[in-house]
Protein 1
Amino acid sequence: MTPASGKTPPAGGVSPFSPLSPLIHGRVRLLILCYLMTHAESATFTELRAALGLTDGTLSVHLSRLAEGGVVAIEKRFVGKRPQTVVKVTVAGRRSFRQYVQELRALVPGLAE
């Protein structure tokens, strides 16, 4: 039984109040995706780090998780002699993010479209 409703979750253990993707729902991963979805869908590692106020280690770990989940693609290249990491939202990532937003709207009454 769930404490809030007193009802037993449906088979599979998923409550109607827990559809949000755990891959996206983490605070840092959500911030990364929100930034990418509103800034031409790609950004450099340095740009993300500065815009979101994250450490190299924190950003690296969360980008790795998003890449493993197929939500972002990470490209490493050189600009002159300097390495540059570019992060881009994949087609599947855009689809997952849109689904996440729809699920969030369904959970939060009155959330603007």
Protein 2
Amino acid sequence: MSDREIKKIMVIGAVGQIGSELTMALREHYGNDNVVAVGRKTAPSDELKNSGPFEFADCNNKESIENLVKKYDIDTIHHLAAILSGSGEKNP
């Protein structure tokens, strides 16, 4: 899929170390409004919260994720919930 075909991106686990960095990089590349950050319970940083859409949702709840996909017309999901930085670096 080329950059021009991507409509909206969702990053699940956007409050974590890897997710927050990915979210900001994607927002820089695709535009703030095109990248929806999703966290479960941890409050986002001011930078993450104020730079584009942020939603709280539990990725184990299929309906809540489906509702966000419909609400924002998401076509690409990066699922980083529960990926620890050290483990992710050892086994990407």
Protein 3
Amino acid sequence: MKTAITPTRDENFSEWYQNLITAADLAENSPVRGCMTIKPYGWAIWELMRGEMDKRIKANGVLNANFPLLIPINFFNKEAEHVAGFAKECAVVTHHRLKMIDGVLQPDPDAKLTEPYIIRPTSETIIGEAMSRWVQSHRDLPLKLNQWVNVMRWEMRPRLFLRTAEFNWQEGHNVFATHEEANEDAIKMLNMYEEYMKNVLAIPCIAGEKTPEERFAGADHTYTVEQIMQDGKALQAGTSHDLGQHFAKSFDIKYLGPDGKLNYGWTTSWGTSTRMMGGLFMTHSDDDGLVLPPMIAPYQVVIIPITREENETELNAYAQKLADTLRNMDVRVLVDDSDMRAPDKMWKWIKRGVPLRIEIGDREMADDTLTVTRRDLGKSSKQTVKSAEFISSVKNTLDTIQHDMYESVLERNKHMITEVKNLSELESMLESGKIGFFRIKYDLTTNAEFDGLIEKYKISRRCLDRQDHSFVFIAKSY
């Protein structure tokens, strides 16, 4: 059967993903090595995702701020353990001026900075410095901050949305009076991420704590939400860190307690990024293109008038009237009245994952009906309904699509998690090509034999089981 995206997922999942991004007109590689340009349709998806996340962040009492892109290198020297995880990925600014030398613009040798700056890979250090000034008393706590910014990590093997040198994200940084409050909040933000993935992105997650081997450098605890892609690989979609007092001591974040004594604060950090978009696309899409949950679809409905020269004006006006009605109901809708052939319009919006596609021709206009197709169910869902019936039910239909997409992935994931009794059984399954997550006793993964499996099969410990920390989930990952 002909598909829009070739090769198919079964033939070559990695290549399918790259071609999906192109076919849906989401992003492209930029002239800057390892970076991407997010195109308008892709950015519209990110804006909707960001808006839903931002509402949830603010509902947790967090205030948005914005910190500098450049971070003094001496800030990183204050927290060596933390920086070790990023040192090989840091981009460094060493000059403040260009000069024409031998007909070529290049850094002016006389404009070398006394101290280099790091383009932020993450902002614990510069936010920690601000917190040391903003927190003076127990009355200043808790201090909860978030910023929506771009960061840079010099990625060696870039892939659009999944791994790029520059990417967009939100990073939250909080400080509390006690360790108990900090740890509770780190878990609270993880739960927020899990709820967001479920109700906004229609993606079920495995949430849990990272093992000591995978823990964020400088953290007491790292919590994670892991998604299972259609090819069985794991994608880390968000993390939340209990940083203990490491950063508070490095940056002198102290507060005067009610007893008049100075105490170090307890800090957390938590973040998600445009990496979520890659997970979204790989989780739901098919061999015809994107499949988008209505919550974050730039257009929830696209209306395609099937026009001829003699009926074009009347039919387009009819379509626009329907669109205006839907817009008044807060439905995101587009009328595609371009001069493309009708079949080409249909394929365009199939590939872009619009949840509901409406076709209107002479017969529909005469009968006051609409031909409606659900993207998540494909051609099998095509039906003709009265316009009034569609209008009255469209919000419920969009909610149903959102729910059904989540349930579909939840059902698929049931077959993607395998219980494993020992390392021999694990290796046998990996050798046979079995995909997905493997649940195994954690203490079986803390030896040289398991280290050998990591090297041989490119697997990793994703997180400890949330209900039973004696088990860990193992998977290949993006």
